[in-house]
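Obj: model holo form, ligand = geranylgeranyl diphosphate.
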Amino acid sequence: MPRRNPSAEFAARLAAQVARVEQAIDRRLPPPHTPPARLHEAMRYAMQAGGKRLRPVLLLAAAELLDPAGRTDPLPAAVAIECIHTYSLIHDDLPCMDDDDLRRGRPTCHKAFDEATALLAGDALLTHAFALLATGYSGRTGLNLVRELAHAAGSERLVGGQMSDLLAESDRKVTAAELEFIHLNKTAAMIEAALVMGGIIGGADAPKRDILRRAGRHLGLAFQIVDDILDATGDARTLGKTPGKDAIAGKATFVSLHGVALSRRHARQQSTAAADALGSLPGETAFLITLARSLATRAR
Ligand code: GRG
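Output (holo structure tokens):
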């Protein structure tokens, strides 16, 4: 009998989930020739190829954990959360924000098109996300999904985290607590939402959603700490985006406050806490746990 190879099984399942997401993105965005074609081409350009698809994969995995029979299709919500994430990247890359030329290994949306088109492509992806939820789900599930995503993407979380990040750029004395606030909102909010939305689709009760939220919070912090480490130590070819920008901007990051070694330790602690929370859920948690652990050592 062939021996089981858990890491190959994990890699194969991850690749299969990413492929499902890619296909769903292609199917669930307006076709590129839809008028005005330039806008829809820009939306597709930013959405297609190169993203890790972490948030949709987390959403699918949480939905499948809670409802292995797959009674409700998680793909509309998976595409919706990637639309929000991609809009935030397009806007973050604009000259009035992080002013970046490279994203997902290609020119940023405003470089490939122009600033106004990129701004509108982001706006349209934000709106499209809620259209996908409204058409893909009904009743209490639909309402809960809209509520969850709207809160995670709104002024108290994703947008609020971005605002705080911008304000912190001109502040040379950002504390560890202020930095954690930024990370919890700018980064962890969408990762939490991915797991909780998967839970909503899978029919998770309130205690299980709380566990998913807690896992997402830890995972989000681990993800952002590693992002800071990669910004300090990674290269553009592997990352697909410009490294070293935080240091040039004199930005407070986990690495600037704690150094690389301690940051690596923090990332491992956070991903272990996420894995422990996920492991407390019933069902086949191995995929989610391995995914949580792999984020602490990711290279891109
Ligand atoms: C403009 C409202 C608004 C928010 C912008 C996404 C974002 C918030 C800023 C980008 C900079 C940054 C470091 C954000 C933290 C979250 C993060 C690490 C985003 C990148 O996510 P990945 O690595 O990207 O999952 P891919 O391309 O793989 O999808």
